[in-house]
């Protein structure tokens, strides 16, 4: 049997992985062709997200008011109260951005839920300023103060925006001190903020002799004694760990 010439053999190789295959799709094998198609779709989604971000940013003037412009958003978020305690105001956003950043928003907007039909998402557990900062952070990192970060962490936990939650935790850890340690300990416990919780416990352990004199300690005992028990257990565990580490280093 006559063997195929070199040119014929090379023509049946995938231009990407260089493997021989029976059928080529525009010079690539089926696997490489499918991977390229998936990459193309992923890039399209990223372009859509970037376009939405640009459109969003052009709708807002530096003083925080919406400007008329060629683009427009397709969903709004509404808090219970408006700016400075006034009437509620909608915070516009893009479905593409919300769905890409939060699996909770993605489920709400893709399914036949009321939010998807009405193009309105009501957020009742944080202020208008926090909602606006929350949406703003989904597009670009915002300038935040300590109170705002606490509210943002609540929203990040609720809507599973993990990178925002991590950012908020790191911010609060940087603001952690003895005076706010118990407040942040209780807050971190409530919202499953492990990084902040560990930092608060570590600080309290280092100042355990002063715990009973802390201005927030008595209030915590009255409000949630279970947290006090867990705090002492965490302190005891950390002390044992530190003691074991010292013994090991001494040997």
UniProtKB/TrEMBL annotation:
Q: Any stretches that span the bilayer, and where are they?
A: none
Which stretches make up the BTB domain? 73-139
Q: Which InterPro entries match?
A: BTB/POZ_dom (IPR000210), SKP1/BTB/POZ_sf (IPR011333)
Q: Which SMART domains match?
A: BTB
Picking any one GO biological process from the record gives: protein ubiquitination
The protein's annotated pathway? Protein modification; protein ubiquitination
Q: Name one Pfam family in it.
A: BTB
The name on file for this protein is BTB/POZ domain-containing protein At4g08455-like
Please name the source species. Rhodamnia argentea
């Amino acid at each position: 049997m006559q063997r195929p010439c070199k040119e014929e053999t090379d023509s049946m190789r995938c231009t990407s992985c260089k493997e021989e295959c029976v059928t080529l799709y525009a010079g690539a094998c089926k696997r490489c062709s499918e991977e390229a198609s998936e990459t193309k779709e992923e890039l399209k989604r990223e372009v859509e997200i970037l376009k939405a971000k640009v459109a969003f940013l052009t709708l807002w003037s530096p003083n925080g008011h919406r400007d008329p412009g060629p683009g427009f958003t397709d969903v709004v978020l509404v808090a219970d109260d408006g700016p400075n305690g006034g009437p509620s105001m909608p915070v516009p956003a893009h479905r593409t951005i919300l769905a890409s950043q939060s699996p909770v928003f993605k489920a709400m907007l893709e399914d036949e839920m009321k939010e998807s039909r009405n193009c309105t998402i009501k957020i009742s557990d944080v202020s208008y300023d926090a909602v606006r900062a929350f949406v703003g952070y989904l597009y670009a990192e915002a300038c935040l103060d300590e109170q705002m970060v606490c509210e943002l962490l609540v929203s990040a936990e609720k809507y599973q925006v993990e990178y925002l939650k991590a950012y908020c935790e790191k911010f609060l850890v940087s603001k952690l001190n003895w005076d706010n340690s118990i407040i942040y300990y209780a807050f971190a416990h409530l919202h499953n903020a492990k990084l902040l919780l560990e930092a608060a416990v570590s600080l309290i352990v280092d100042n355990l002799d002063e715990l009973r004199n802390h201005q927030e300690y008595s209030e915590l005992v009255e409000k949630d004694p279970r947290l006090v028990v867990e705090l002492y257990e965490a302190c005891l565990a950390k002390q044992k760990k530190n003691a074991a580490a010292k013994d090991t280093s001494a040997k």
